[in-house]
Design a protein that fits this description.
Layout (H helix, E strand, L loop, with lengths): L8 E3 L2 E3 L4 E6 L4 E7 L3 H20 L2 H17 L1 H12 L3 H18 L7 E5 L3 E9 L2 E5 L7 H12 L3 E5 L6 H13 L5 E3 L4 H9 L5 E5 L2 H11 L5 E5 L4 E5 L5 H13 L9 E7 H17 L17 H17 L1 E4 L14 E4 L6 H4 L6 E7 L2 H9 L6 E5 L3 H8 L6 E4 L18 E2 L4 H5 L3 E9 L1
Parallel strand pairs: 7-8, 7-10, 8-9, 10-11, 12-13, 12-17, 13-16, 15-16, 17-18
Antiparallel strand pairs: 1-2, 3-4, 5-6, 6-20, 11-19, 14-15
Bound molecules: nicotinamide-adenine-dinucleotide (NAD).
Nicotinamide-adenine-dinucleotide binds next to α7 and α8.
Length: 469
Amino acid sequence: MTDATSFSLLIDGQAVTPAATLEVVNPATGRVFARCPAAGPAELDAAVAAARRAFPAWRALGFAARAERIARFAELLSSQAETLSRLLTQEQGKPVGQSKEEIARGATLSVGMTKIPIESEVILDNAERYIELRYQPLGVAGIITPWNAPVNLAIGPLTSALYTGNCAIIKPSPFTPLTTLRIGEILREVFPAGVVNVLAGGDELGALMTAHPGIDKISFTGSVATGKKVMASCAGTLKRVTLELGGNDAAIVLEDVDVNDVAKKLFFAATVNSGQVCMAVKRIYAHEKIYDALCVALVAEARKARRDGLDPATTLGPIQNRRQFERVCELKADAARHGQLQEGQAIPAGEGYFVTPTVVTGLAEADRLVAEEQFGPVFPVLKFTDVEDAIARANNTRFGLSGSVWSRDLARAQAVAARLEVGTAWVNQHRLTMANVPFGGAKESGIGRTYAHMGLTAYMEPQVISVLK
Ligand code: NAD
């Protein structure tokens, strides 16, 4: 057991260890393997006060100097990727290769964002008037993250906040606080005191952040239900919000694809991180001509899946926590009552929250596995005859994060993609994010975008300077 004393909160540049603690479970064993300190209202107030004190000097530093600090942070993060990824796997469950990839992506995306210029725009400049649009940092950003990708989902908003001149307070999920606290030690070396603060804590700490008058903006990544509570609470102080919420991504597979090639890609996109990805493929709509062959190829992929804790050959880790494990098992049992399950490589029974990857056929749109976000390696494959029907079924949901269309005919696929009611519609791929491409949800999958100019200026207030000459 790793003792609570080996982790600390970061407040005002100091390592702080209050008496309250959180217990952290390794989902591969189902047992508590570490404790860490937990913040309450006093630590939150101290962090907010520190961030507000640090704000004037940090905003005055300018984009280039802030980008340099972020590059230094990314360098240190990459240099510690080996130890951080082991800790991430222990608390989150994903195979260690996927943990390394998450950390590497965090570093790359954060440096990528600092290459995006945020410039003033001259709207009018004539004999009479000069009108300019500029962007000012907001102040203090609160960053609340979920348990499925705790590093990446903290670093994206953190870089956006810092690069644009804001100070930040990060609160990881109580299920996965440890790697974020360790990253706090790197942040402490790189950034001036108070610029970044890291507070582990439960759901109630998140709620306190959304109501705190000293926080100007909340970046929240998590479930739709909590996202709605966050937005309602932020309304009290009219905080700016970026909400990155859940999805129920459809992949529409047209009749002209190379079935085996597409099956490999779809299986990966549906089951990477054991399906616990907001933009995982969660429903597959396959044309009737290739439906049977695609199901066979997907089941073959599922039979290749391997698990074994920190073993580098592992492709599928456990579900991250007991509550989510029970939910996935419940959705799978419901699917078994209404359709047919084809299971892949059996996950040895025993400790840990492992779920066997499973392809489900014969379900209807109203069945729970189709209608709800499963967040697990069990997914439905549904048949269509007319692509219009596939588009209508894909869009028949309150979710709108992303989706994909698969075909050799790129023009046709692109036309179908454009009709998906989502923030990102991919063609012949699923799950690509880049620093200069905005990502976020339509409908109830979110408000606003992360990455790119659009995502960065969401941490800024537009200000017009209007001069009468
Ligand atoms: P969650 O909503 O339960 O919790 C997310 C975070 O919010 C945690 O830190 C939690 O402590 C905190 N929280 C809980 N109640 C709160 C409240 N009332 N006020 C403020 N904060 C509160 O989500 P989760 O179960 O940790 O994550 C899974 C969900 O996240 C899935 O739906 C997934 O699709 C979504 N997600 C979305 C994206 C995206 O980019 N769109 C990325 C990853 C995950």
